[in-house]
Write a structure and sequence with these properties.
The chain is mainly alpha-helical. The protein has helices spanning 16-35, 40-52, 67-79, 83-95, 99-103, 137-140, 165-171, 195-208, 220-230, 235-242, 247-253, 259-276, and strands at 105-108, 119-121, 128-132, 145-149, 156-160, 185-186, 191-192.
Length: 278
């Protein structure tokens, strides 16, 4: 952990976020080792130790993906032939869904279980991984309403895509014969994205669109929640739409919303006007 968080350059800031991602990856590798029965005893012991150990977390993020960012990103992605990145970003921003709930993830297939579904070989040919939890074309249905259980809380959230203009404009460009399997497919690999491949390819387009490196794809959720609050939606309604268990969690995702502040300021000015008229 100490080595992982070292500054990129002498005198630079510690890379706490990088260290946390490495620890997350190590935990995932250990869980995979347990599921695949690879050095089961050692993997279990190490995972138990890491689970009981507390590490300093990264500072709470303040960045958010804004509408202007998305509107700049989409045409760049389409011009590069990356409809997947355009549609994924539009879905994340307009629905507020987590990246994982849109693009899915690769989970280890337990030892002895038949590798069915969308699968690929693990690294160095060891074990299998199965794609799970991402959106498929079948999830859309004829009415274009998505109902999905979120990966983090298990809450059921529903979204009417007909209310998402950015998403609808992209869906209209996808022919019927391509509407099978996973919704977000890596054009270069011909299968659903791996987590880091999606973020890596997204950043390439984001830079072309002028989106600062400090703004991440995963900040789309914060952008959605902040825009919703600015639009006047109450916190509990937003909480339900994004699948948060607690409104306090939703509040943390609202980054610099100005809507409520404007309403308060306008109410105070109106009150002053009433008082001065008496």
């Amino acid at each position: 952990m100490i080595a992982a968080k070292q500054p990129k350059k002498p005198g630079g800031p510690e890379r706490i976020d990088r260290a946390c991602k490495i620890m997350k990856m190590i935990r995932e590798m250990l869980r995979y080792g347990i599921a695949a029965e690879l050095a089961h005893e050692h993997c279990t012991r190490l995972l138990t130790i890491l689970t009981a150990t507390e590490f300093k977390g990264p500072r709470r993020r303040r960045s958010k993906l804004e509408l202007a960012h998305v509107e700049a990103f989409l045409p760049k992605a389409l011009a590069a032939g990356r409809m997947s990145l355009a549609l994924g970003t539009a879905l994340q921003f307009e629905s507020g869904m987590r990246q994982k709930d849109v693009i899915g993830e690769w989970l280890p297939v337990p030892a002895g279980e038949e590798p069915t579904g969308i699968v690929l070989r693990g690294r160095r040919g060891k074990g299998w991984r199965r794609w799970a939890n991402g959106l498929t074309w079948a999830d859309l249905g004829r009415d274009l309403v998505i109902s999905k259980e979120t990966t983090k809380t298990g809450s059921l959230v529903s979204h009417d895509l007909k209310e998402f203009p950015l998403v609808m404009s992209l869906l209209a460009q996808i022919p019927a014969e391509r509407r099978i399997g996973g919704l977000i497919i890596d054009e270069t690999a011909g299968r659903p994205y791996a987590e880091f491949a999606y973020a890596r390819d997204w950043r390439v387009i984001a830079r072309e669109a002028g989106i600062p490196d400090s703004v991440w794809n995963t900040d789309a959720r914060a952008g959605a929640i902040t825009e919703a609050e600015d639009a006047g939606a109450d916190l509990d309604t937003i909480r339900g739409s994004v699948g948060h268990a607690q409104a306090t969690t939703t509040a943390r995702y609202s980054r610099g919303a100005i809507g409520k502040s404007r309403k308060v300021a306008q109410a105070r000015v109106a009150l002053r006007g009433e008082q001065n008229s008496h």
